[in-house]
Every structure is written in C-alpha cells, then in structure tokens.
Amino acid sequence: MLNTRDGWAQAYGPDGSLILRTTDGGQHWKNVTPSVVPPQFQYNIETCEFATTKTAWATINTNAWILLMTTNGGKSWARVGPSFRYFSDASNVRFVDDHFGVAQVGDGGLGSIYYSFYQTLDGGTSWTPLAVTSPNSISDGPGTVHLSSYNGDQMAYYPRKTFIVAYGESGDFAPNGYIRLSISKDFGKSWRQLHLPVPDALRNEYTEPLVPVFFAEHHGILPIEIFTQNDISRTFHELLFYRTTDGGETWSVGGMVAIGKNGMASEDCDVISAEDIVVRNGGVLNLSHDAGKTWRQITPNIDLGLEDPKSRRDMVRMNFADADHGWMIICDYNTSWPYDDYWFYRTKDGGKKWAEVPVMTSK
User: Fold this and answer.
1) Which phi and psi (to 5°) does residue 41 adopt?
2) Cβ within 8 Å of residue 18, ≥6 positions away
3) How many Cβ atoms from other residues are within 10 Å of residue 25's Cβ?
4) What is the pLDDT of residues 234-287, one digit of tens each?
5) Of the candidates 182, 327, 213, which has an alpha carbon nearest to the alpha carbon of residue 276?
6) Which of 151, 156, 182, 222 would staple 242 via disulfide (CB 3.0–4.6 Å)?
7) N-terminal to C-terminal alpha carbon distance within the chain
8) pTM for the full model?
9) Coil, helix or strand for 202?
10) How far apart are CA 333 and CA 350, in angstroms?
C-alpha cells in the first residue's frame, strides 16, 4: 500500500498469476494483469515491483525472460529492455518521489552476497548503473560490493550519493560490543567507519542488522536484532533501533523492544515513518511513535498465530501506510488441507481492531 487508498498486489488464482490494483484502500481490486502475456504463460509471472501509484514492472518467463512496465496504473503494459537483472527475488526497487528511484540487486551464494545499484531520474524509464567502490578490497567487478550474507551484512543507498553498510556478527567467534557501519557520501570513493555503542546490558550479545530505512534526505532508522548463540543454535532477545537525523553521519540509540526467540522475519517489522514503527511479536503488536524510544503493546482482536501452539494461523504480510492505517494477510494452514486459506484484514486505529476485507476483483 502506497498510501491509505492506493496499492498493488501480486496474487494467484485458478487462471494463473494476477496483478491487482486498488484505489479504495483494498475494498475493491482491479485485475490489471498484462494481456500481452500468452495464456499458457499466465502462471509464469515471476516477480513484480510496485514503485508508485501508477508505475510497476512484471518479470515473466515465456521460455525467455521478458520485462513489462506500466506507467498508468496497469491500463496498458509495454515491453522494455531489461538492461540489468533487478526484477528478481533478490532485488528491490524504491522510489523516493515520482522521478527518483533506486534499484538494488543482490546475487550470491556460499555465504557471500554481491550488491549492485542503479538509479533513475525519469520515473523508471531509463536506469544508470552506480559505479560504487567497495568498502573492502573484495568485489566482483566495478560497481559491485562484496559483503557477507553468512554474517548478515546489509547495505542501502540513499540519501543521494550516500551508501551505508551495516555489518552483522552471525559468523564471528565473539561479539564486538558495538555496531559497525561503513558510510560513503561520494558513491564509495571514500568510506568512513563508525562504531555505534550498544547499551551496557547488551555488550556481550551478538548483533545482526536489518536494512536501514530512510525518509527524505536526513532521517533514517536502523533496526538491529540482538541474540545469543552457540555452536548449534541462537536465541533472539531484542530489536534495537538506531536513529539518524543527518543522513547517516551520526546515529543515536532510539530504544528497543522484545522479540520472539526465533528472531524476526522481514514482514514482522514495518518502519512506517521516521517516528512510527510497528513490530509483530507472536500474538501481539508493539507500536512506537518516537522512533523506538517508548513502546505500547496491544493485543489485536484477531489471532496472529505463530507463538501459540494451538493456533494454525500465521501473519505472512503486514503493511502500514501511516500510524493508523494498516493491512495484514493471515494464513490458515489447515482449514482446507491440502490448500491454505488466506484472510485479508484492515485496521484504521493503529492495529487494535482489524476488520476482514473481502477481496473483490473486477476486470
């Protein structure tokens, strides 16, 4: 959901993959699946990127990969040349406004990940590779940054010209006692190393970052998972938040919230704005409206599952447009075995009360 009314969805139905668009907050969805896809390939819409209320892409495998783009909300789709491989499960596209967007491509294996970045200044029509220099001596060619997926390293581009690398400790023998960052303000030509202090009570714990999220040029939030580990397992404890108001030059501890022992999935934490955060922890939601300094825990009127062994449900998607308006997809794994049932909910009061929204589609 891009705001309280406009959103996109990729779904699956009896006739194959669907691309849907809503303009009324999810009450009604219009089927805007590209008609240029031959019927025998309807199931082969692999990935979609939804950039703005009008702009989206779809990657389709028709025995050869093709890339389709719409700039009018799905009314029409045009085939575009895939100048790089950013429309995949290992990539994402983020638009800051209707013109400026960033594509991040991840590719790797055996504990390594290689990031490449591209930017557009014309709403996605054309893209330019960013010739970023790696903060370490290892890369996979010009413009590629090599990091450790085994350790849980994360990287982000934005504000403009700024790259931020947050390093994890999953593969380390002992925790560092601080959060290690690399930051560049000149496309990676020079890097500055930052050591962010952690609260005293967490000095002997391991850390693993989530992707830093920025809002406008200066305000950003960096979530960090805190855990203990031994040779065979790890146990998670808190989600620690750092905040910047100067584009990543300096960071301060915003606060922390308890999380489940199995850690966080990406859909369990939604950084809504520079102030508003919602974290799902088992059957409850934790909300902060001051960048993580203070938290309020609420128990929704619906079963979120996961931590309750008697529950057959689990939250698989959560997306808030602002502090009050959010949407959630709940999966019930056993109601119609061997198929799963999915339920679509909406809240207008910050997550306390959720109402089921029947998914109505039209051509």
Assistant:
1) -115, 15
2) 9, 10, 11, 12, 31, 33, 361
3) 18
4) 888 889 999 999 989 999 988 899 887 777 777 789 999 999 999 998 889 999
5) 213
6) 222
7) 20
8) 0.86
9) helix
10) 26
